[in-house]
Amino acid sequence: MDIKNQKTQGFFYAVSSFIIWGFFPIFFKLFDESVSAYEILAHRIIWSVFFMSIVLLFIKKLQNIKILLQNKSTRKALFLSGLLISANWGVYVYAVANDKILEASLGYFINPLMNIIFGFLVFKEKISKISAIAIFIVIFAIGVQIYAIKALPVISLLLPITFALYGVVRKQIRVAALEGLFIETLLVLPFALGYVFYLSLISQNHFTNGTNTTIMIISGIATVVPLLAFNAATTRINLSTIGYIQYLSPTLSMLCGVFLFHEELGFYRGISFVLIWIALFLSGFSTMINTKSKS
């Protein structure tokens, strides 16, 4: 396959993955209101493990899992990253279930800049003057949110913080994305199974309810499919290109929150989004300048 076709495919895979993630609010809104975010999270973990097992078996990489699990340091790191990604998933599901989709989308807009902050704090990566200004704008945007709601925008902070910390842990171990996510979810699987068993004991298990059961199973597919598309994209196009496409996901989520689920954007929240977009533009501009200067 020639380079042009590879890039075209890569672009298609990247756009597909971020469109799926962007429309996640619609999917998670399909659950009955009686189903808690914790139960949804538990089943997302359970069925993700199930479907990733099938994928790994099909591509003949299941044998790699045993080798990776034998390494104690890798196992510990992936358990920690598993807890972090589970927390991230849980916060997101909670946000959707409680009509806080706009807070969640704001958090994912903040995420790239949070990565820059953690890169500086943990790995001593240099921050350009433009990126520093972008970070200051984000802090100001968070301040606007605090002023508007008279409280910390917890969801908008927890999502990028947990995901940035997840990135910090994963950066320090060399494990392929799919195998890594499988082990992460596999290691937290006992907690998910234990919680579902507990719900069964207290007669609060919704897995026996037809529609909810189907959606719970599909949640595993919904987790694996965009991940596979994303992995396919990373092998075909530049990460910088993917970095720009990633904003498609929180943009679609924001549109879902406003137009489908009628969440109020409001003046101050609108100001926060505009400030974040300005910060992202500055950060992207800084990255582009640095890339050109190195080439």
User: Distance between termini?
Assistant: 26 Å
Our Rg estimate from Cα atoms comes to 20 Å
Low-confidence stretches at least 5 residues in length (pLDDT < 50)? none
Structural class of the secondary structure composition? mainly alpha
Mean pLDDT: 90
Sheet-strand content, in percent, reads under 5%
Sketch the major β-sheet: none
Give your account of this protein's structure:
The chain is mostly helical. Helices cover 82% and strands 0% of the residues. It contains 13 helices and no strands. Helix 3 (37-58) crosses helix 10 (210-234), helix 5 (72-97) crosses helix 9 and helix 6 runs parallel beside helix 13 (267-294). The longest helix has 28 residues, at 267-294. The radius of gyration is 20 Å and the shape is globular. The two termini are 26 Å apart. The model has no long low-confidence stretch (mean pLDDT 90).
In short:
With about 300 residues, this protein is mainly alpha-helical.
List the helices and strands and how they pair.
Elements: H1 3-22, H2 24-28, H3 37-58, H4 62-69, H5 72-97, H6 101-123, H7 129-149, H8 154-171, H9 177-201, H10 210-234, H11 239-245, H12 248-260, H13 267-294
